[in-house]
Amino acid sequence: MKNDLAAGGAAGQPQNSSSGEKNDKHTITTRQLCFMLAFFLPANKLILLPAVLTQYAENDLLLSALAVFAAQGVAVFALLWLMTRTDKTLFELIAAKFGAWAARIFYFLFSLYLLFSAVLPVTEHRLYIQNTMYDTLPTILIFLPFFFFSGYAAAKGLQCAGRAADVSAPLFLFSVPVLIFMSVASADFTQLLPVGAAGTGRIFSGAAHILSWCSDAAWLAVFLGNVRTERRFLLKTGVSYACGAACVLFFLAIFYGIFSAVALNESFAVIKIARYYNALKTLGRIDLLFIYVLSLVQLFALTLPVQLSAHTMGMAFNADMPPLFSAIVNGVLLLVVLFTSKSFPSLEQTINGYLFPVFLLFGYALPVLCPLLAIRKNRRKGAKKA
Amino acid sequence: MIMQRPDRHLQNNIAAIKALLPAEDVLVFSFALPSGRACAAVFTDGVTNKELLGEQVAKPLGTYEGEETFEELAKAVAAPENKEGGDFASLAEEILDGNAVLFIDGLDRTLVIGVKTVPARAVTEPPTDIAIKGPRAGFVEDLKTNMSLLRTRLKTPELLFITVKIGRRSRTKVVLCYLKNIAREEVVHNIRSRLERIDIDGVPDSSYVALFLADRRHSLFKQTGTTEKPDILAARMLEGRVGILVDGSPIALTLPYLLIEDFQASEDYFISPFRASFTRFIRLFSLILSIYLPAFYVSAQLFKLQLLPLGLLLTIASSIQGLPLSPSLEMFLTVLLLEVLTEASVRMPKYVGMALSVVGALVLGDTAVNAGILSTPAILIIALSGICLYTVPNLIETTSLIRLLMLLAAGSVGTYGIVLLTAFLLYYLFASESYGAPLLAPFSPMIENDLKDSFLKFNLRALRDRPVPLRGKNKRRFREHEE
Amino acid sequence: MKKHTFYMPRLRGEKIILLVVFFVVILFFSTDFGLIDIQKTAIILAAGIDRTEDGLFSVTAQIAVPEASKSGGAAQAIAVSGSGETVARAFQEINTKTGWFPKLIFCDLIVLGETVTKNNVFDCLGYFLRNEQMSDNCLLAACEGSARDALSASSPTEDMTALALQKILATEAKESGNISTVNLKDFAIGYFSPHKSGYMPFLYLLSPEEGGAKSEENAQSGAGGQSAAGKGKAERGKALSAAAQGGKDPSSAPQKEEKIFYGACTAVFYDGKLRAVLGQEESFALNLAVGKVRQATLQVPLPDGTVYALTLTNVRAKTTAREENGLPRLQVRLKAVARISDCTTPKDIENIAATNTVRQRLRRGAETILSDALATAFETCRRENCDIFGVADRMRKYHTAFYNACKDTLLQRTAATFEVSVKDSH
Q: pLDDT at residue A340 above 70?
């Protein structure tokens, strides 16, 4: 462990960058990035995504998910590769190429996108906690303290997100394997057969409808230049991404294996899969304790785009006022949640059904194009040398 | 005109020092050399050892027949700890500190003689940090004794002490002790500068100093480590921490502080690593139980009955039938009652404390249940939580507060409140650092090397490297030699 | 890059904590969170559903009522009924009658009365499927007569009828092959699958004296099963149904009569309607073939009049469906290891000691009984279009093209073979 403190922790360690933005508050380690990819990535895909995917792709939900993860993998890999080639942030790369104002405009748009990408997960989270943690439908007031937490977290540097990833690792590994252990015996994996029965159209339709959940490459872009790369960086992060994706795929397989024909009706997948475990009849719903542990990871993962949105907004306005931007971002989110509290299906349908090109643009196309910023710069350098 | 420095007239000097120290316990012991030259030793009654003063100063000078220069007279004084005094202000400080100041008529130089004596208690086992196996000596209130206790454990020239006087009126000696190269220089420098910046009336205890050394002024969590045992302080200094001893306090402070250190008992290092790991997990489990059990009990009753198995739910439901209080208020009241009992039993004299325990546990608890004010499960839950809390005694202040917060969160927002507050506290800890060391290290940021001495306690031979957030230039505890 | 700095009061963690604590304390002491605490909650342990003559749903909820006790633990159950056009309305009526808010989180059993199973049972089960708070892991059973009578009866085995029924229908019972235990989720999967078939245990409500006779009757009925629920039991069913029409509140509930529940028969459903009730032997064979049976007991009569009881262990069943000569073929292979556990004729001590030696005659007898029972069960189900062996499901998964070509007539064209192999443990 060479750089635990320098990147993950201690203040006062000088960084080798001249940029004012790139200080310890925003630097994470390779390990923390790996944990984000392996544990943050799947955490919030275990709630509504399985049922939504089943609605379109039926028993071929794995194919849809696989297609999305493969496409997202390309975007993720492009950014990871770029991290090994440059220690500049995306802001600096754009500023170097197109000028500071262009970078600021882009970052403002990017912060809006990150805020937009947080809308569905946050409203989904509200429904999820209502179903997981309450017997009767509680008042919406119950959900409001979330914004205290989110507001606090978003005002902290990216370093805190990295540290949250560190803590998420044991929490995730303590909860998800236990839930999977409790549920895997109830799953009949032959329900996934016959492969391809849903047809290509439905498989791709399913894939399109889960883009909002699977646009993680976008937040990875903000970490560009803020990660301390180490040996075998690409291998480590690549394997972590694969693990995160594999976890989701395995969960989807178990989910469909358990519910098959009624999977469409099982909206909050993660709280339901373990309840057929025999021991629960005598012990009570101990699976809920593991679900609550997992919800900590889900909270951390949920606040990440909010945090990044506040961060990028700060960069766009070139002002070091995290609490202000955190308050703005969370205020907007709060309003959205309040206004959509009774119309989640329409919101979900609008975002997943009509606005998915936004996710395609920011979560897929832009990350894939990012390496061009570095490549062209290198060529110019080469030309200068010549 | 006020004199700044002593002059050649003894009476003037005595008058000047008495003007500075008019207190009745500042005494003047006058005697004369065989030649008839008058001398006077000014000292504080009770703090200066008068017997030593007579034996080591008055007696040799009373029979002295050599040359009467300052140097020769100083040599004649038999005390081992002598130095020349400065201006009146510093002389007054020395006198208050317990030393005697010798004025000699005709000389404008003074001699400070170390004949201090402090009524100190013996080195005994402290009430906290009790170990069944391992050293039992504890710090006392006397700084010198504490320094000597530390020195006997670290006989190395690398052990350095830096003394800073704090307190405009108390002038308390605060000693910063560290091992050169093992502690981080910037941490030592930072602590020293903070100590020097402290401007306060007096320092009755080390906890005053701790408040000034905290990175966060209003932190929910502890900011400095504490110990009452020299072996623990030595062990922590060997890890790279800096110790702070305060005159008059038996509690030493250690910095930087990591949350994990309160889970590490000194005994863990003297027993099998398996047993040590097990007990550390027990501590963690107990702490979690003590914080979350009352909260989940309330949350289950109010918001999520499914958290309880049916049989237990029916048992609880039949116990709470007809209670006038809601589950949350019942639990809140019970927690408050426990806190009151704890507070009262700590403050009460021992023999009254026994009676109080009987009143609290038997009379109040049983009567409350019989009167239908509280339910049996609530009392059981709080009793269990209360016991579990004491498995990590150094964190009691924080954990009991967090338990109350959790209870409030559970009673108002339910399980989500518990989850949210936990996430919030975790984030709060992520953002907390103690002199550059993250409070949650080695978990966040995760430090593989230091995980070997976290909740899992590896064999001593596996703990070759000092903890990453603490260590300075010297990184290794030991080197393996081929056998 | 130069930074703009504006005046911004620092929102430190401590201030946020204070804000949160303030918010939480207000909520805490307001004690108004829209919640329903334990004392205002009806903890429903089981729900029985019937249809009235007007076509309304009559829901009987067995509610656990904790009794005030300092030591806790004391609870009794009462059955409360409500009716309405929907199950939800019926529960609402229960709420109105009792003042307790009905919570289904502990409802682990749904009993469907005879009047409900005549129509599509998902007319009422849909409510439970929609309910996010209720676990679809709850057990399902159809019963002879009315579900209200079943839940109002008192059982000699448990204080609460619901718990007695849950014991009978528990997973452990399924593992012995005696009960065709099924939960709501699995039954719903069957219904919403292309084959629309499913099964659940069929309960008879008997007086303790009737219990033994019923067991005998079913053991002997063997072949043929019984088509349509309640045939042969109609009279008793009617009597019980009549009793169920009585009061709908606890005070007017009929006098509790001690009853035992007999659940060895299996009701098979197609398209949500009860089509047939399989007898004990068919149900037993079905359970061996489709369930995870650990240890079961089978009675084998020999021509000399001696009846042996064999304990079957290591039960392994393999069901395959494939296309053969243009026809679907179902093959069920059942393997088990047997040892003798009892015999009606007294034997000498050597014979008793040799429990592991099961003679071939006895093994063949067991194989014949099981394969005949499987064949009968299959035929009964095929007649009613119930695909409880999962032919369609298997063909769809592994022979999709063939399935698509003949899915409408698949079950009718299926040729079935049942191979049972019973070995002794040597």
A: yes
Smallest Cα distance from C19 to chain A, Å: 8
How many Cβ pairs within 8 Å bridge chains A and C?
96
**B315 CB near a chain C CB, below 8 Å?**
yes
**Euclidean distance between CA atoms A12 and A23, whole angstroms:** 9
> Is the Cβ pair A149, B418 closer than 8 Å?
no
B414 shares a domain with B317: yes
Test the A interface: residue of C132, C175, C183, C396 with most A CBs within 10 Å? C132
What chains are in contact with A, requiring at least 3 Cβ pairs below 8 Å? B, C
Q: What is the pLDDT of residue C257?
A: 63
Residues A288, B304: C-beta atoms closer than 8 Å = yes
| Predicted TM-score (pTM) of this structure | 0.86
Beta bridge partners of C77: C64
Residue of C nearest to A318 (CA): C3
Residue B477 lies in a domain: no
Asked if B186 and B104 sit in the same domain, the reply is no
Say whether A8 and B310 touch across the interface (CB within 8 A): no
Query: Would you say residue A373 lies in a domain?
Result: no
Please list, in sequence order, all residues whose beta carbon lies within 8 angstroms of the beta carbon of residue B470, skipping any fewer than 6 positions away: B183, B184, B239, B240, B241, B256, B258, B437
Alpha-carbon gap, residue A367 to A374, rounded angstroms: 12
Chain B contacts of A322, Cβ < 8 Å? none
Return the CA Rg of chain A.
Answer: 21
Check: CB of residue A97 under 8 Å from CB of residue A376.
Answer: yes
Beta-bridge mates of residue B271: none
Residues of C in contact with A135 (CB under 8 A): 36, 103, 105, 133
Nearest-Cα distance to chain B for C43, in Å, is: 9
Identify the band that residue A334 occupies on the pLDDT scale cut at 50, 70 and 90: very high
Within a domain: residue A384? no
State how far residue C27 is from chain B, nearest Cα, in angstroms.
5
- Summary mean pLDDT of chain A: 87
Residue A241 inside a domain? The answer is yes
Closest chain B residue to A302 measured between Cα atoms? B423
Can you give the pLDDT at residue B459?
87
If one compares C77 and B85, the residue with the highest pLDDT of the two is B85
User: Are residues A160 and B430, on separate chains, in Cβ contact within 8 Å?
Assistant: yes
Cross-strand partners of C140:
C110
A8 to B305: CB separation less than 8 angstroms, yes or no: no
> Which of C41, C133, C189, C193 is the best residue to mutate to test the A interface, defined by the most A CB atoms within 10 Å of its own CB?
C189
Q: Is residue B51 in some structural domain?
A: yes
List the domain boundaries for chain C. 37-291, 294-426
Name the percent of chain A lying above pLDDT 90.
62
Question: What pLDDT does A385 receive?
Answer: 44
Indicate whether B231 belongs to any domain. Answer: yes
Q: B327 with B354, same domain? A: yes
The reply to whether A321 touches chain C by the CB within 8 Å rule is yes
Q: What is the pLDDT of residues A78-122, one digit of tens each?
A: 999 999 988 889 999 999 888 899 999 999 999 999 999 999 999
Q: What is the ipTM of this complex?
A: 0.90
Q: What pLDDT digit, counting tens, does each position of C269-302 carry?
A: 999 999 999 998 899 999 998 877 888 888 888 8
| Domains of chain B: total | 3
> For residue range C130-146, what is the model confidence (pLDDT) as tens digits?
888 788 889 999 998 88
List B223's β-bridge partners, or say none. none
**Which residues are CB-neighbours of B230 under 8 A, at least 6 positions away?**
B135, B137, B138, B139, B146, B149, B150, B152, B153, B252
* For range A234-247, the mean pLDDT: 96
Which regions in chain C score pLDDT beneath 50?
A: 1-9, 219-254
Q: Which of residues 367-386 of B touch A (CB under 8 A)?
A: none
Give how many domains chain A has, as a whole number. Answer: 1
Give the CATH fold of the C294-426 domain.
GMP Synthetase; Chain A, domain 3 (3.30.300)
Domain identity same for B221 and B192:
yes
DSSP assignments along A177-192, one per residue: HHHHHHHHTT--GGGG
In a domain? residue B131:
no
Contact A319 C135 (CB under 8 A): no
Indicate left, alpha or beta for A99 from its phi (over 0: left) and psi (-120 to 50: alpha). left
Q: Do B319 and C71 touch (CB under 8 A)?
A: yes
